[in-house]
Each structure stands twice: as structure tokens, then as C-alpha cells.
Design brief:
elongated, binds iron/sulfur cluster, three-stranded antiparallel sheet, two-stranded parallel sheet, 171 residues
Length: 171
Amino acid sequence: MSLLGEVVENVKAIVKGLKVTLSYIPKEKLTNQYPDEPIQIFSAYRGEHYLNIDENGKERCVACFLCSAACPANAIYIEADEDLRPYEERSTREERFAKVYNIDYGKCILCGFCVEACPKDAIKHGHNFEMAVTNFADLVKDKTYLLKNLERESQLPVIIIDETMREKYAK
Ligand code: SF4
Ligand code: SF4
């Protein structure tokens, strides 16, 4: 190809590229200025877990180990204990409870198997995706942290979208 031919081809390629760029300018912007602007997340999103409490504020977990048995990543560590005090005096729903409940997010793949395995609705996925840390030890979240996670999540600039809206957003 002659030099002039090459120049013409290159100019045509640049114009073609610019046409694509310019066609996007009038369209709705997809970039979110997070955290200044809230981000939208579907309700089924599997973020960092939280340990659930019942309507009376009692811990639901009975330390049955089903979640840790179901975990393919061996990410859950539990130690069971018993609190034989009357219901009104203890912080747990049942006498048996998890004295230690850790999830290692260095291992967890957010698959949701633990949530499905739990017969007590005690472990749930929240919507928190701000999970970055600066050292490995901080990837292990303990019971105190997980019990507070739903409250922590409510402070995030996140809008939860109902799953029924998924079709609308897919367009
Ligand atoms: S979400 Fe999956 S990998 Fe993470 S703790 Fe639960 S079962 Fe394990
Ligand atoms: S979170 Fe659920 S499955 Fe896991 S130990 Fe507690 S009660 Fe059992």
C-alpha cells in the first residue's frame, strides 16, 4: 500500500473510533461517583455476611456446625458453648450457642452454601462489598463484627433494588 493509501486508512480508522466515542456522550452515564453517589445493588447480591438475631434481639445461632460443614472453602470456624441461664437472662435464643464464630474472607468465595445450610436463619448474606483490608489477619471477621454487620451495612451509600426489577435493568 502506498503512503497516501496508509494515511487515508489511518484517518478512516480514527474517524470510525471517534464516531463510537461521540455516540456515547449523549447517553446516560454509567459511572457512579461512589461513595459520594449511592450505588444500586440487587437484593440477592451476596456480600459480607451478618449473624442474625430474632425479634427479641436474641442470637439465632445454635452452633450446629451445618454451615461450616457445607462450606467448600473451609472458611467458617465455630466453637460451641452452653448458657444454662433462663431465656430472659441470656443473649441467645437457645441454651447452645456459638461462643466463637469466625469467617475468613481470605478463603470465603461468597457462594451462599452456608446460608442455605442454616436451619435457624442465623447466617445471612448482607450487601456490604467494602471488604478490602491491608493485612491478612483483618480478613478474619469474628462474631462481634458479624453481629453488627447489618447495622454497619445500613450506613453504606447503597440502594437495594428488588429482584423483580432485574428485567428492567437488563435492558
Ligand atoms: S459463602 Fe460459601 S465460602 Fe463463604 S463461608 Fe459461606 S459456604 Fe463458605
Ligand atoms: S449459623 Fe446456622 S448452620 Fe451455622 S452453626 Fe449457627 S445455626 Fe448452625
